[in-house]
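Postdoc handover notes: sequence design on the structure in folder B. Input tokens:
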């Protein structure tokens, strides 16, 4: 007959030994984790110490660049303002002295007129010759500055260049300039004074 062994019959000291081993393992694990945690903390602190100067340097660089951009903007604004003022001055001077060259050319005409008037006891013929010479000088000035005469005798009436003073009976075609009462003038293509004219009537019947 075999002797049955009770499961509860264990050798004394086994549970205590197992418990001690478990505690030792846990203590070792905790110690290892603590050591690793300490090492990680030191690494994090070192990384933070290394990273903080980089942030400060980046901030300093950003401030320097911002200052440079601000200075460049101020200089550009000042230059733009100077250009605007110079342009305004140029426009003002252009309006003010636009006829300077033309006026200079007219001075020679004035000189001729004064010289002719200064001659005492001038004959009619001499006076006429002096006036014709002065007229030629004035015509030369007009040609130089593209001032052309409008003398439309015998031409079709053009309301853009002519101003009709009256209409008259004529053998010419209706609406034709019969007589020029006062010549007109153009500056380049712009009429600065229309010609004053008499225009033929339409034939009755």
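Designed sequence:
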């Amino acid at each position: 007959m075999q002797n049955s062994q009770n499961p509860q019959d264990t050798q004394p000291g086994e549970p205590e030994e197992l418990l001690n081993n478990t505690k030792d393992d846990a203590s070792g694990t905790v110690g290892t984790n603590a050591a690793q945690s300490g090492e990680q903390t030191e690494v994090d602190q070192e990384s933070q110490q290394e990273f903080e100067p980089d942030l400060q340097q980046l901030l300093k660089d950003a401030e320097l660049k911002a200052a440079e951009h601000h200075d460049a903007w101020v200089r550009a604004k000042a230059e733009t303002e100077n250009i605007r003022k110079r342009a305004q001055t140029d426009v003002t001077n252009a309006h003010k002295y636009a006829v300077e060259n033309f006026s200079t050319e007219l001075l020679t005409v004035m000189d001729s007129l004064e010289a002719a008037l200064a001659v005492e006891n001038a004959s009619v013929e001499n006076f006429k010759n002096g006036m014709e010479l002065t007229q030629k000088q004035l015509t030369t000035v007009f040609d130089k500055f593209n001032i052309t005469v409008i003398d439309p005798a015998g031409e079709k009436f053009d309301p853009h260049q002519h101003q009709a003073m009256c209409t008259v009976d004529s053998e010419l075609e209706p609406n034709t300039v019969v007589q020029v009462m006062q010549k007109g003038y153009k500056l380049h293509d712009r009429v600065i004074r229309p010609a004053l004219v008499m225009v033929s009537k339409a034939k009755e019947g």
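Context for whoever picks this up: Confidence is low (pLDDT under 50) at residues 1-13. Don't rerun without checking with the PI first.
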